[in-house]
Amino acid sequence: MLIAAVERLVLTLWVGALWVVGYVAAPLLFTRLDDIAAAGRIAEAMFASVAWIGLGCGAVLIAAQWRHKIRPLAAHWRLWLVVAMVVLTVVGEFGVRPPMAEFIPPVDGADSPGDTAFYPMYRLAESLYFLNSVIAAVLVAGGVQPRDS
Question: 10 Å Cβ neighbour count for 69?
Fold first, then answer.
């Protein structure tokens, strides 16, 4: 019972951070701050925090999912969704964010050296984040606990 409650709390922390930062806080930064570069730096720090929260929560959820001993392992869809979220987080945080941070996005439509490289990386990061959000919605709707047959 306690482990089930911890799983729900951990999933709530992860999904809540993911949705609030990605769909509320970061967009507000870019609409409310006049300095786009400052908004970008703050958003980057928030997304990095969400990634680390996700990795910690993912580790707890994966460990908790192992206790269900669902066989075959391929049928354990909740575990695989959590693993997919962790993988997407790792790819975004360690594969996409570092090279993206090297590029300076163009300002007000001006051409810059980062123009051709920044936007594909930005769209990739955006897509990974959205996919993680959709998987999170499935986990919230389906729960992290297997149903009793």
Answer: 9
Residue 135 CA to residue 118 CA, distance in Å, equals: 26
User: How many whole angstroms separate alpha carbon 18 and alpha carbon 93?
Assistant: 13
CA distance 20 to 126: 15
**CA distance linking residue 9 with residue 102, whole number of Å:** 36
Residue in 8, 122, 14 with CA at minimum distance from that of residue 58: 14
pLDDT in tens, 41-68: 899 999 999 999 999 999 999 988 887 7
* Cα torsion through 28, 17, 23, 92, rounded to 10: 110
